[in-house]
Structure prediction request, 295 residues.
Amino acid sequence: MQKVMGYLRLARPANIVTAVSDILAGVAIVGFFGSGFAGNLSLTPVILLCIATVGLYGGGIVFNDVFDRELDQRERPERPIPSGLISAQAASCWGGALLLLGCIFAFLANTTAGVMALLVTASALIYNRWGKHSTWLGPINMGLCRSFNLLLGMSVLPAVMPEFAYLAAVPLVYIAAVTTISRGEVGGSTKAPLFLSAFMYLLVINAIAFFAAQKDQVVALFFLVPFALFIFRPLVRAIARPVGPLIGKAVKAGVLSLILMNAAWVAASGAWPVAIGVALLLPLSLWLARRFAVT
Prediction:
């Protein structure tokens, strides 16, 4: 059982829930849940894409620990690989199996989804091996992983996807902001990158609000306002005192609040009942976050 828990810890279950919310946001953005689609299309591809993102995100985060094992030996020796609970070889097999599972299920949905899954896989591996070591390219690289994941959700309707593909820039900016904050998670930070991330957060909030206004969906504010509070409260504390523990809390909030951001996307797309369902993933993610590390 300890080994099983070790493998689960490597995959960051709380984070995986946020990846599922990406898919549901993408599905809603292309109008799948609208009155013109809901009665005519099967939910099977949505289910396949949700399973796909579980594998893709889980596999990507496992390889994060595989590539960081020497650093974790110094900074986080309690993690499964540096502690000796899981070998690096076994972790690599586990991560590879999850990525393969994700790609297979994406291709079962449709070819466009399969291509998006391959892009998620490539972006995750490039980030884990090289991207994270670059001050500027690293956050962009990490943001691309979420952008392609949102596009993976949009690929449920390949013909409609190009019309909304530009919105994938929003999670790129958001995750770039979270990644910038995370650079100070262990040793602390200066205030400059935290202020930069706060500005990027504001860009994201305004982008979603603008999209909701275009769709005449004021109901999105019921999700957008809690999202803003959830991300800014710990960030303000970190700016006031930019030490590792407070920055870590800001990063954790940034990751978990993706669920609220995606609920806002769903509401802005006109599917507010589905948005409530997405928002209800947050308690599940918070419960898992108390049992498994988020960062």
Remarks:
- The two ends are 23 Å apart (CA to CA).
